[in-house]
User: What shape does this take?
Amino acid sequence: MSTVPFAIPRPTYPTGVWSWITTIDHKKIGVLYGVTAFVLFIIGGLEALLMRIQLTSSNQDIVSPEVFNQLFTMHGTTMIFLAVMPLSAAFFNFVIPLQIGARDVAFPRLNAFSYWTFLGGAILLNSSWFLGGATNAGWFGYAPLTSIEQNPGHGIDFWIISLQVLGVASLAAAFNFVVTIINMRAPGMSFMRLPLFTWMTFITAILLVLAFPVITVALIELYMDRTFGMNFFNVAAGGDPVLWQHLFWVFGHPEVYILILPAMGIVSEIIPTFSKKPLFGYGTVVLAGAIIAFMGWMVWSHHMFTVGLGPIPTSVFVITTMAIAVPTGIKVFNWMATIWGGSVDFKAPMLFAVGFIALFTIGGLSGVMHAAASSDAQQQDTYFIVAHIHYVLFGGAIVAIIGGIYYWFPKITGRMYNEMMAKVNFWVMFIGMNMAFFPMHFLGLDGMPRRIYTYDSNMGWDFWNGVSTVGVLVLGTSFLIFIINIVTSWRSGETAEADPWDGRTLEWSIASPPPEYNFEVIPTVYDRDAWWAEKRGKVQHGVPVGGGSDEEEHSIHMPQPSYWPLIVSIGLIISAYGLVFHSGNFIVASVGLLIGVIGVYAWAFEPVNEPE
Amino acid sequence: MAQATADHGEHEATTTGLNHRKMLMWAFLGSDCMFFGSLIATYLVYKNRSLEGPLPIDVFSIPTTSVSTFVLLMSSMSMVLAYSALRRNRMKTFRVWLASTAIMGMTFLAFQVFEFRVFANHEVVVDCHAPIGELSIVELSVRNDKTVGCEATGHDEVEKQVGLTPKTNLFGSTFFTLTGFHGAHVTIGVIWLLTMFFLSFKKGMVTPERNLDLDLAALYWHFVDIVWIIIFTVVYLFGVFPGFA
Amino acid sequence: MTQETQALQHEESHPTPGTYFKVAMILSILTAIEVGVFYLEFVGWGIIPILVLLSGAKFILVCMYYMHLKFDDRIFSTMFVAGLVTAAGVTLALMTLFSFFG
Assistant: This one.
């Protein structure tokens, strides 16, 4: 069998912990992503809690300014890269193959590699707390505050290298999903019959592969300056720190659409399901998503309105930024039109989806206010922006993701969550969220800057800061409720049926939880909302579009697990530590590289399926 | 069937009929365009902004770089001929063209290393009688140098080593980072090609049926070549054009 | 799609080695012209569009023939062009914002 050099037999039917370590099954990988990301979300939340406690009232010194700087930097970096993105990835992983009628993703081992690399990056970044101090220059790391002169020590290097590692993980996953969605759809599933969540994932993946390389280059340039004394952002040599801002935000703005489009996809699944109506204007919603992604490349300097770009560039970006509100608004109207006239069932997922619409719209309103450069001149770098960010990212992305967790919980675990507790969860979260973040609008307009560790009592900011902290405590409570619900239900909740919601898409057509091979028979798709169509007998026996599967049911061979994705990840992380500390002329980095290269070769020559 | 190797995917049915890995490679190349685009953008944004040190016109040797560019271009030809030979089961021809490609790649890298070392050891020679208006920034700095300059030494001709390194100025940083990462891409390509070359001696590893493996390597290789086509024009040719430099 | 249809797709037109040689000759000539034009004094600022066109032609020839895009499914071209266009757009935007064009 193994006539191949480097051939080490693949693990056969591992159990317990090994089955998780060597898994290449998208469903297991999805669970790994979800649990890991949620833990990191809590860590990011604790970082926020510490900041809020410090800011509750004036002139406190519970947290020193140096630590505070690390807290807000790590909070932002964690929430964006280690919480929201991987939580979305958890759904991409678990749900996409099921929605398109596939047995796995196009590159199962690459998928596992993405997860382990993400975990490695998360550990790398957070280990900085214990290895000399975390990064402290904001999640956007503006030069020259990140220069080696102004920021000696390894905090910034941890940030740079972790983001590169996380970038590798995200890119690998994005490539995987682009190919999977194009190339593994069931027969008859044309693009215009794709579930909305799959569509939004596809668009997000395209954004990822185009945007990430830009921040990769920015981070390389910063690393070069810090480590090798190059001049990319060195003013004395003629370098321009504003270049950093441009490169960062050319990535950074598409990044926020990467954060929100999957959430919008989740909402676009939940609302039709619980309104018992197809999504109003499917084509328009898809097109709006694509337009948002396209236009997202033309607005980045609205993060730089106060840098002094000049009246013409500023005006251009004002116009493009206002324009991008239009496709977003279109989606909101389509969701509302879906609910209107539907047979609405306000189960917990639906509460979260509707909550998303309300909260994201509020965030969008403050966003449009920032779009006007003149008013942004007052709002920039104040808590008004913090309010906007949290309405769109918490009220938007997180609320939708929690809704998605409840929605797909039966499918993933085979159990039902506790409905009453979930509804309480929603309301406590909704109240807490608004208490925590609405006051920030007032504080911002009242002049409270971002990223300050304390303020004087004569500023008049004490009251709303106090309210905000109470709100955060309420939010924390809501997450306790969530954790209790999820953990107890997973252990001993009521057994779930395959299709508890009378769902519309293919994942509801198979058992809860699905068997390893997902579909015993790859379905043939005749309509949008394929499962709903099948259930309601709307099947037309025409010629299916595209697709290909001529397997026999009795010989479903799933690829076997593998060690190598993890090994390559480990090599990458060792390299990463070597790059952060770069003592001894990069010996550690080279060792990591060697391990990675060996792993890649072993991966390439590994047999796909060992005949039994 | 004992096809116990990674070609299982080649016979898997796909929605478009296209191979997963080939699609992955094209998606990757599209993404890599953004990577090189950002590096080139940085280079262009900083063009003509160096405050000191050698500039393109001081160090570039168009004849030398034309040769290395030509070598890389011809390596694309040998790459595609290797692929063509493999498809037609001309194994010896295939190996010759594949080895040639790898050798030309290594030649290109050798030229790069040589060029970088020349830049780092660049010596500036200034004729003290030349009109000041004709001197470049770095020539002026050597002319006026307090130790070895024209006034200081009283010589007719003065010289000083003013190397171009990544630390010297904006040109050094942007140039070496851009060409360095291009060179790293070439190096990975050479390793990939050599791997396939040595593998081809083991029975059944590199065959006409499995030509996709070579196709993927070839696509990567051609990409690395076309990136250099852009770099040669934008960095080198435009770099020393009198109006631009 | 069945395996037969897939096999048929692989039989799509492949240029002969002769074609590849011809393309290589054209690439060499284009490079020679680029370098030659570069030494002609009278060209002046016109050298910019000339070099852009010449290197663009080389780029396209390698993509279409060596990378086989001319004969392959349009999806591959779309993926590549998307990256190329976005990269070019971002580059030009940054150059403009940094007053490269005066």
Observations:
- Chain A touches chain C at residues 182, 206, 209-210, 214, 240, 243, 246, 250, 297, 301, 309, 313, 546-548, 550 (CB under 8 Å).
- Residues 65-100 of chain A form the longest helix (36 residues).
- The two ends of chain A are 11 Å apart (CA to CA).
